[in-house]
Automatic annotation (TrEMBL):
InterPro entries: ADTRP_AIG1 (IPR006838). The chain crosses the membrane at residues 12-27, 47-67, 79-102, 122-140, 152-172, 192-211. Its main location: membrane. This is FAR-17a/AIG1-like protein. GO terms for cellular component: endomembrane system; membrane. The keyword Cell membrane does not apply. The keyword ATP-binding does not apply. It is found in: Endomembrane system. PANTHER family: ANDROGEN-INDUCED PROTEIN 1-RELATED, AT02829P-RELATED. It is a multi-pass membrane protein. Keywords: Membrane, Transmembrane, Transmembrane helix. It comes from Encephalitozoon romaleae (strain SJ-2008) (Microsporidian parasite).
Amino acid sequence: MEKRKTRSVLKEALKLVFLGFCVYATTDFSLPPEIVEMSNATSGGKFVYLTIITLYLTIISTVLGYISKTRVGKRLEEIYKDMLAVTFSLEGIVTTLFWSLYFINPTLLKNKSLYKRGIRESFLTELSAHLFPIILLLICQADVRLQKRKRCIYFIFGFGALYFLEICYFSFVNNGKWAYPIFRKMGWVQRILFVLIACFIGTLFYMGLLATNSLIYQEYEQPNEND
Protein backbone atom coordinates (compact mmCIF):
# COMPACT_ATOMS: atom_id res chain seq x y z
CA MET A 1 0.00 0.00 0.00
CA GLU A 2 2.80 2.38 0.92
CA LYS A 3 4.66 1.57 -2.28
CA ARG A 4 1.54 2.26 -4.35
CA LYS A 5 1.04 5.59 -2.62
CA THR A 6 4.66 6.55 -3.28
CA ARG A 7 4.30 5.69 -6.98
CA SER A 8 1.11 7.73 -7.17
CA VAL A 9 2.75 10.78 -5.59
CA LEU A 10 5.77 10.45 -7.89
CA LYS A 11 3.52 10.15 -10.94
CA GLU A 12 1.57 13.27 -10.03
CA ALA A 13 4.78 15.17 -9.38
CA LEU A 14 6.14 14.17 -12.79
CA LYS A 15 2.89 15.23 -14.45
CA LEU A 16 3.11 18.67 -12.89
CA VAL A 17 6.76 19.05 -13.86
CA PHE A 18 6.16 18.07 -17.49
CA LEU A 19 3.01 20.21 -17.60
CA GLY A 20 5.10 23.14 -16.41
CA PHE A 21 7.60 22.57 -19.22
CA CYS A 22 4.75 22.44 -21.76
CA VAL A 23 3.37 25.75 -20.50
CA TYR A 24 6.87 27.22 -20.64
CA ALA A 25 7.24 26.16 -24.29
CA THR A 26 4.11 28.12 -25.27
CA THR A 27 5.46 31.40 -23.89
CA ASP A 28 7.64 33.98 -25.60
CA PHE A 29 10.15 33.59 -22.76
CA SER A 30 11.20 30.24 -24.22
CA LEU A 31 12.24 31.79 -27.54
CA PRO A 32 14.89 34.28 -28.69
CA PRO A 33 13.40 37.76 -29.30
CA GLU A 34 14.22 37.56 -33.01
CA ILE A 35 12.13 34.41 -33.45
CA VAL A 36 9.24 35.94 -31.49
CA GLU A 37 9.41 39.06 -33.66
CA MET A 38 9.45 37.02 -36.86
CA SER A 39 6.47 34.96 -35.71
CA ASN A 40 4.45 38.01 -34.70
CA ALA A 41 5.16 39.69 -38.01
CA THR A 42 3.40 36.99 -40.04
CA SER A 43 -0.32 36.41 -40.39
CA GLY A 44 -1.42 33.57 -38.12
CA GLY A 45 1.47 34.13 -35.72
CA LYS A 46 2.66 31.12 -33.78
CA PHE A 47 -0.60 29.24 -34.38
CA VAL A 48 0.50 28.24 -37.87
CA TYR A 49 2.91 25.82 -36.19
CA LEU A 50 1.64 22.34 -35.42
CA THR A 51 3.91 22.20 -32.39
CA ILE A 52 2.13 25.12 -30.73
CA ILE A 53 -1.34 23.79 -31.52
CA THR A 54 -0.55 20.36 -30.06
CA LEU A 55 1.11 21.94 -27.02
CA TYR A 56 -2.09 23.76 -26.18
CA LEU A 57 -4.10 20.58 -26.77
CA THR A 58 -1.77 18.73 -24.40
CA ILE A 59 -2.17 21.37 -21.71
CA ILE A 60 -5.96 21.45 -22.10
CA SER A 61 -6.14 17.65 -22.10
CA THR A 62 -4.08 17.39 -18.91
CA VAL A 63 -6.14 20.03 -17.12
CA LEU A 64 -9.33 18.32 -18.30
CA GLY A 65 -7.99 15.11 -16.78
CA TYR A 66 -7.77 16.76 -13.37
CA ILE A 67 -11.26 18.24 -13.77
CA SER A 68 -12.74 14.86 -14.78
CA LYS A 69 -11.59 13.41 -11.46
CA THR A 70 -13.81 15.81 -9.54
CA ARG A 71 -17.44 15.18 -8.74
CA VAL A 72 -18.59 17.98 -11.01
CA GLY A 73 -16.35 16.99 -13.90
CA LYS A 74 -17.09 13.26 -13.84
CA ARG A 75 -19.36 13.56 -16.87
CA LEU A 76 -16.39 14.83 -18.88
CA GLU A 77 -14.43 11.61 -18.45
CA GLU A 78 -15.30 10.12 -21.85
CA ILE A 79 -14.46 13.39 -23.58
CA TYR A 80 -11.17 13.44 -21.71
CA LYS A 81 -10.30 9.90 -22.79
CA ASP A 82 -10.87 10.70 -26.46
CA MET A 83 -9.01 14.00 -26.21
CA LEU A 84 -6.10 12.32 -24.46
CA ALA A 85 -5.89 9.66 -27.16
CA VAL A 86 -6.03 12.00 -30.16
CA THR A 87 -3.69 14.53 -28.57
CA PHE A 88 -1.17 11.76 -27.89
CA SER A 89 -1.46 10.75 -31.55
CA LEU A 90 -0.84 14.30 -32.75
CA GLU A 91 2.08 14.69 -30.38
CA GLY A 92 3.42 11.46 -31.83
CA ILE A 93 3.42 13.11 -35.25
CA VAL A 94 5.19 16.19 -33.89
CA THR A 95 7.80 14.20 -31.99
CA THR A 96 8.57 11.81 -34.85
CA LEU A 97 8.72 14.35 -37.65
CA PHE A 98 10.53 17.04 -35.69
CA TRP A 99 13.42 14.93 -34.45
CA SER A 100 13.73 13.04 -37.75
CA LEU A 101 13.90 16.21 -39.84
CA TYR A 102 15.93 18.09 -37.24
CA PHE A 103 18.74 15.53 -37.36
CA ILE A 104 18.62 15.45 -41.17
CA ASN A 105 18.71 19.23 -41.57
CA PRO A 106 17.39 21.72 -38.99
CA THR A 107 16.68 24.32 -41.68
CA LEU A 108 13.92 22.08 -43.02
CA LEU A 109 12.03 23.29 -39.95
CA LYS A 110 13.83 26.48 -38.92
CA ASN A 111 14.31 29.83 -40.59
CA LYS A 112 17.59 29.39 -42.45
CA SER A 113 18.77 32.97 -42.05
CA LEU A 114 18.24 33.05 -38.28
CA TYR A 115 19.65 29.57 -37.80
CA LYS A 116 22.89 30.39 -39.61
CA ARG A 117 23.25 33.50 -37.45
CA GLY A 118 23.09 31.29 -34.37
CA ILE A 119 19.63 32.47 -33.34
CA ARG A 120 18.06 29.22 -32.19
CA GLU A 121 15.75 27.80 -29.56
CA SER A 122 17.52 26.35 -26.54
CA PHE A 123 17.72 22.59 -26.19
CA LEU A 124 15.42 22.83 -23.16
CA THR A 125 12.82 24.59 -25.30
CA GLU A 126 13.10 21.92 -27.98
CA LEU A 127 12.60 19.18 -25.39
CA SER A 128 9.71 21.06 -23.80
CA ALA A 129 7.98 21.44 -27.14
CA HIS A 130 8.84 18.20 -28.92
CA LEU A 131 9.39 15.48 -26.32
CA PHE A 132 8.02 16.30 -22.87
CA PRO A 133 4.39 16.64 -24.08
CA ILE A 134 4.18 13.06 -25.31
CA ILE A 135 5.83 11.81 -22.11
CA LEU A 136 3.27 13.77 -20.09
CA LEU A 137 0.38 12.21 -22.01
CA LEU A 138 1.93 8.76 -21.68
CA ILE A 139 1.92 9.22 -17.91
CA CYS A 140 -1.67 10.52 -17.97
CA GLN A 141 -3.02 7.53 -19.88
CA ALA A 142 -2.11 5.23 -17.00
CA ASP A 143 -4.98 6.77 -15.01
CA VAL A 144 -7.76 5.77 -17.41
CA ARG A 145 -8.89 2.74 -19.39
CA LEU A 146 -8.92 3.52 -23.09
CA GLN A 147 -10.93 1.82 -25.81
CA LYS A 148 -10.51 1.89 -29.56
CA ARG A 149 -12.75 4.55 -31.08
CA LYS A 150 -13.15 4.95 -34.82
CA ARG A 151 -13.96 8.60 -34.27
CA CYS A 152 -10.45 9.15 -32.91
CA ILE A 153 -8.91 7.87 -36.14
CA TYR A 154 -11.31 10.01 -38.16
CA PHE A 155 -10.28 12.99 -36.05
CA ILE A 156 -6.58 12.44 -36.78
CA PHE A 157 -7.15 12.54 -40.54
CA GLY A 158 -9.70 15.35 -40.28
CA PHE A 159 -7.30 17.40 -38.22
CA GLY A 160 -4.53 16.74 -40.74
CA ALA A 161 -6.74 17.97 -43.58
CA LEU A 162 -7.77 21.11 -41.68
CA TYR A 163 -4.20 21.88 -40.69
CA PHE A 164 -3.06 21.50 -44.29
CA LEU A 165 -5.77 23.93 -45.40
CA GLU A 166 -4.69 26.32 -42.65
CA ILE A 167 -1.03 26.42 -43.67
CA CYS A 168 -2.02 26.70 -47.34
CA TYR A 169 -4.18 29.71 -46.53
CA PHE A 170 -1.51 31.43 -44.46
CA SER A 171 1.08 30.66 -47.12
CA PHE A 172 -1.16 32.54 -49.56
CA VAL A 173 -1.66 35.57 -47.30
CA ASN A 174 2.03 35.58 -46.30
CA ASN A 175 3.21 35.81 -49.92
CA GLY A 176 4.22 32.18 -50.30
CA LYS A 177 5.96 31.86 -46.94
CA TRP A 178 5.21 28.43 -45.46
CA ALA A 179 5.11 27.68 -41.74
CA TYR A 180 7.83 25.08 -42.24
CA PRO A 181 10.53 25.58 -44.92
CA ILE A 182 10.29 21.92 -45.96
CA PHE A 183 6.93 22.65 -47.61
CA ARG A 184 8.54 25.29 -49.79
CA LYS A 185 10.78 22.61 -51.31
CA MET A 186 7.80 20.41 -52.22
CA GLY A 187 5.20 20.37 -54.95
CA TRP A 188 1.50 20.12 -54.16
CA VAL A 189 1.34 16.34 -54.56
CA GLN A 190 4.34 15.92 -52.27
CA ARG A 191 2.77 18.19 -49.66
CA ILE A 192 -0.46 16.21 -49.67
CA LEU A 193 1.43 12.91 -49.43
CA PHE A 194 3.53 14.30 -46.59
CA VAL A 195 0.40 15.21 -44.61
CA LEU A 196 -1.16 11.80 -45.33
CA ILE A 197 1.97 10.03 -44.10
CA ALA A 198 1.90 12.19 -40.98
CA CYS A 199 -1.71 11.13 -40.35
CA PHE A 200 -0.76 7.47 -40.71
CA ILE A 201 2.06 8.04 -38.21
CA GLY A 202 -0.52 9.53 -35.85
CA THR A 203 -2.73 6.47 -36.32
CA LEU A 204 0.19 4.18 -35.47
CA PHE A 205 0.79 6.15 -32.29
CA TYR A 206 -2.90 5.85 -31.46
CA MET A 207 -2.80 2.08 -31.85
CA GLY A 208 0.43 1.94 -29.86
CA LEU A 209 -1.20 3.93 -27.07
CA LEU A 210 -4.12 1.50 -26.93
CA ALA A 211 -1.73 -1.45 -26.76
CA THR A 212 0.29 0.19 -23.99
CA ASN A 213 -2.85 1.05 -22.05
CA SER A 214 -4.13 -2.50 -22.44
CA LEU A 215 -0.88 -3.93 -21.10
CA ILE A 216 -1.10 -1.65 -18.09
CA TYR A 217 -4.57 -2.88 -17.25
CA GLN A 218 -3.73 -6.50 -18.10
CA GLU A 219 -6.72 -7.03 -20.33
CA TYR A 220 -7.75 -6.54 -23.91
CA GLU A 221 -11.12 -5.20 -24.92
CA GLN A 222 -12.51 -5.70 -28.39
CA PRO A 223 -13.27 -2.41 -30.18
CA ASN A 224 -16.89 -1.37 -30.44
CA GLU A 225 -17.76 -1.78 -34.11
CA ASN A 226 -20.85 0.40 -33.72
CA ASP A 227 -18.83 3.36 -32.44
